[in-house]
Amino acid sequence: MPRLARTANLRYNIRMTKPLKLIKIGNSTGVILPKEVLARLRVELGDELFLTEGPNGVTLTAADPDFVEAMTAAEEIMREDRDILAVLAR
């Protein structure tokens, strides 16, 4: 495979851009998410999604970013203090 073709493959962008339609739901406004988006988020009807505002706009995720951050910190503590936690578990 020529070098140029390999470089192009490495730069392939898998970012999804989909138009979303807003609809009226009672006194609120809802968003219709296409099947492909639901599949990519691995969610279904009744699941919660989390909208996070950041410097580059908003991000829609199936995981609570605050919970993920707390669990990452807990995992780090468990790794660092593994011996102490083992003694306390006895």
Structure write-up:
The chain has 90 residues and is α+β, with helices and mostly antiparallel strands. The protein has a single domain, classed as Ribbon (Pemi-like Protein 1, Chain: D), CATH 2.10.260.10. It has 4 helices and 4 strands. It has helices at 3-10, 35-41, 65-80, 82-88, and strands at 21-25, 28-32, 50-54, 57-61.
Overall pLDDT level: 77
Please write the CATH class name: Mainly Beta
Described by the principal axes of the CA atoms, the overall outline is elongated
Beta-strand percentage?
15-25%
Number of helices: 4
What is the fold named in CATH at topology level?
Pemi-like Protein 1, Chain: D
CATH architecture field: Ribbon
In the sheet with the most strands, the strands line up as: 1-2
Low-confidence stretches: 1-13
Give helix % range.
Answer: 40-55%
Biggest sheet overview: 2 strands, antiparallel
Rg measurement, Å: 21 Å
Order of H and E elements: HEEHEEHH
Q: How many DSSP-defined strands?
A: 4
N- and C-termini, Cα separation: 58 Å
Overall structural domain count: 1
Class derived from helix and strand content:
alpha+beta
Task: Record keyword descriptors for this entry.
single chain, 90 residues, two-stranded antiparallel ribbon, 4 helices, 22% strand
